[in-house]
């Protein structure tokens, strides 16, 4: 069954996580997480290493199930429908909820083909022949532009993507994820492999995207969370300690552990 | 400090020595083939079929065996490739490390080690049962079986080297496993897959025992899939078995031609491989 995509999906779209538990073998990695990801804006998931941030993120586009030996219970609702329900189409879920990995992984093809990969497999372009090519060219230019990479690569679109610098590769991955036109974009420590200049560039792109897209960023860099986040989720040892508007969580944290973490006493 | 340096130089010598032994014996084999085969390697050898029978004939050439070998090995390789690729994709993308997949790998490893004469005998029994005579088709199918384990295991190992993050990148864009296999993994592993195919081809074109019963031997160039086909390894085998030096010399010439064919195929695949490497992600 297809998940209905209404024309105003962009404005309502958000994720709602209900009593999510994840085990890797015997270790209970996420313990009864219940929270909301508001539509649009940037939600930052913060917490020390190994607290389950990435696991939580990967559960949101069902990439978690690619890990062997993983078991989970609970629900994740996208616009009110469970992405884990029995008749859910996993490729559709991942089309609507895109992802940016910590280390850029270009696909083994040209810069152009990397961005066109998603639109091509999803047959986003209805036209055929020359019209189709022109439309795909349009998509590639638009999203390379949105990722702030167009000017740097427009003269070598057919060159191998592996020839780009790490910072450029990460922006290419961003363009590639955006070209599928996801409603939600999950970013797992998106700047951890990047130099400060490229990191700043990626952050700026995320800021400008948040008007149209719901963005979830996992980060262990508190300064980055403070710069980016409109909404914050704080995880500690697999438990959700606190979640709320960034202003409130950073200014007046309610929980003692959040306070200690933000002050740098723990984590 | 001194012990470490001694250790290092000892193993260095060991490594260089081993390489030298291999290269040396290869050179020796090649030089014997060239020295004995070159005098008999005339234009007639590669442009004519034998005159006076392949066993005793000193006239004509071995075009029958050259063409037969190419038909057999190319046919067998293409057939094996058509079966290997789906198996390798299945092993890597769906079955992964399940018990069934591991048993499949074990079976393939055993098949790899089975002597080719066993494949030949097996193919022969099947052909008898089906009422087929020794033919090009029988030889191609038997060679495909011999090449299959080499190809599948080579491809399986190559695909196992693909970083899981690369596959996940494709999944995260909403691609299915099949799309990921055909558009990402195939490109990423292209050069390695080519090597697997080449290894299998080399084994196929050089094998004598399996085609002995299944493809037979003939002085004529096969004109259909059902007619028997000669092959270079058997040309070497039969002509070496005669007591006449002139015919034996022709065997060395056949071996030389076989080696040159393998060399040419290797060079072509190297060139192809370097073109495919362009996009590979490291």
Describe the structure.
The complex is a heterodimer of chains A (267) and B (282). Chain A is 37% helix and 24% strand. Chain A is α/β, with parallel strands linked by helices and 267 residues long. Chain A has a domain at 9-104 and 184-263: P-loop containing nucleotide triphosphate hydrolases (Rossmann fold), CATH 3.40.50.300. In chain A, the strands form two sheets. Chain A has a six-stranded mixed sheet, sandwiched between helices. A four-stranded antiparallel sheet of chain A has the order 2-1-4-5, with helices on one face. In chain A, helix 4 (111-121) packs parallel to helix 7 (166-179) and helix 5 (129-146) packs across helix 7. Chain B is mainly α. Chain B has two domains: 2-38; 44-279, MetI-like fold, CATH 1.10.3720. In chain B, 76% of the residues lie in helices and 1% in strands. In chain B, helix 1 (2-37) crosses helix 11. The longest helix of chain B is centred in the N-terminal third of the chain and has 36 residues, at 2-37. The A-B interface holds A 61, 63, 66, 68, 91-92, 94-95, 98-99, 101, 103, 105-110, 117-118, 121-122, 160-162, 173, 176-177, 180 and B 96-97, 163-176, 179, 183-184, 187-188, 278-282.
